[in-house]
Structure formats: structure tokens, C-alpha cells
Amino acid sequence: MSGVQRQDLVLFSDQSVMPAQLFENSNSHNLFFITHQSSTQPLWLINALVEAHVVGFPGSLNESVPSSLSSATHSHAVVASFIHEQNHFKNSLNKLKIPSNSYTVLDFLSDFMINTVVNRSRDKILADLLEKFSAAIQNASADIIVIIEQPELLLSLINGLTYSELNNKFITPLLKQCQVLIIVSNSDIFNIDDYDFPLRSSNLQNFYKTSFIKSVINLNLNPLKSGFAKDVTGSLHVCRGGAPIATLPNTNLHVVENEYLYLSEKESTKLFYR
Asked: Which of 181, 203, 231, 233 has CA 20 to 30 A from 271's CA?
């Protein structure tokens, strides 16, 4: 797409990706919901959100620097994954020169079943997971975002766990501990017929629906409908979630709905308007 103008990522009406207004009230808690498929890996978007929070804007994506950019040294990101090891995130964040003391990575892939799940009740497992996040949050500074990759896998890893238990005993308590919680989920399940895994499919679909309803913004990564293209990797659809944005009164902040095409190359990702 050499002849097409590159675009900056803008998610909110103040022309930002991670608005400062979300952190002005310690009693405000907002959920972001990212969905993707296996062919549209979200690491670049996760990096951009961490970068926007810690640095003030996503320099890995956006060419223009905000004129009102302020220091964000008091900001911290907690990143956790049930599908990737620590180095998956640390290596990419180090390449972006994000200060290592500005983020914490929790690894729930390595030895998770042995150390957390085996011979424990559902309530105990969820409580132990929540405690690990609580410790990371308490050790960090004031403005916290938490990014958790594929928590829906717990529905398969923990015997008998339902989407309502996952929400009520883990997701909602975690949201209350931070100002912004970002859930990153794989939506491949919607390409599987219901009769293949009826109960599991229903649990997953209900988890996704609940996450969308509780979110203030939905970021959906999709592959190209036409298949492979040399100059386009996929599309990013930005839309409002089902919940209002929690900020201080009289803050006229809203989601800027848009659709981008993106091109992921070895060392960078570029955005273009569709």
C-alpha cells in the first residue's frame, strides 16, 4: 500500500489511545475487549496499548507526537497470558524501549496446571489467580492497566467452571482492582459448529457476550475476507462496547468508531483507513 497515506491509531474523542480521563477517578473502572483470530495475532496491538499508557502515545504505530504529551512515569501495566510465556511480551516491549520497571508480566502458561489447578477447587484456583494479580497491582504505581490474554481458556482448564463463575469470581473482582482492564480473546470458537462442543461452546459464547456488554470499547482484529494480500495483513474494527465510559462527571469522552487496514511486517505495523 505504498500509495496510501499511513494513519495514526485514535480510539477516543480526545484523539488519544489511552485517555488520561480514565485515571482521574480512582473509583472508575473501564473494560476494553479485544477479539482476534489465530491468523490475526494481537501482540502489536497489546504493545501499542502498553506504550500509550506508559509513554503517553503509541510511538510504534503513530507517526505524530501529541502536542500535549505529558510524563507518564507514574503509569504501570500488568500483562498476563494463558497462552504465551513471559519472553513473548518482554522481548517485544524491550525492542520498543519501554522501561522494564513500567510493566510486569505474569506467566500463566508455564506449569500453570501443576502449580495452580491440580487437586484444587474452582473457588481456590480463581482466588489464587486473583491474588497473583493483586500482588502485582499493589507493587506498582498509581495508574494501572491490566491486560489479560485468553482468560476464556480457564473454562477448559478448570473442570466444571462456568462463564458466570469466571466473571463473578475473577474478571469482575480484577476489574475493581485496576482502572482499566483489557481482555484479549480468541474468537475462533465462532467458526466451530455448536454441535461439536455444545456446552463448552455455549460457555465461551456467553463469556464473549458478557465481556462485550461490560466493555466500553471493542477492538476486533479480522483477517482479510479475500484471503492473503501482500500489502495488507488484516483489519481493525473499533466500536463502542455495551457499557458507558466511567470517568469524572461532565467529561465528554466517547469512543471514535472506525475501521483500519493494517500491515504487520517484521519490525513494525502500519495502519491505513479502509
From this structure: 181
- As for how many domains the chain has, the answer is 1
C-alpha cell at position 191: 467458526
pTM for the complete prediction? 0.92
Q: Is residue 142 part of a domain?
A: yes
Give the phi and the psi of residue 267 in degrees, each rounded to 5: -115, 0
> CA–CA separation, 247 vs 242, rounded Å?
16
- Sequence-distant (≥ 6) Cβ neighbours of residue 59 within 8 angstroms: 51, 65, 96
Structural domain of residue 113, as residue ranges? 20-273
- For the stretch 108-123, pLDDT in tens is 988 777 777 888 899 9
* HSE toward the beta carbon, residue 260, CA cutoff 13 A: 25
Write out the three cell numbers for 212.
Answer: 462485550
Residue type at 168 in one-letter notation: N
203 contact partners, CB below 8 Å, separation of at least 6: 155, 161, 162, 163
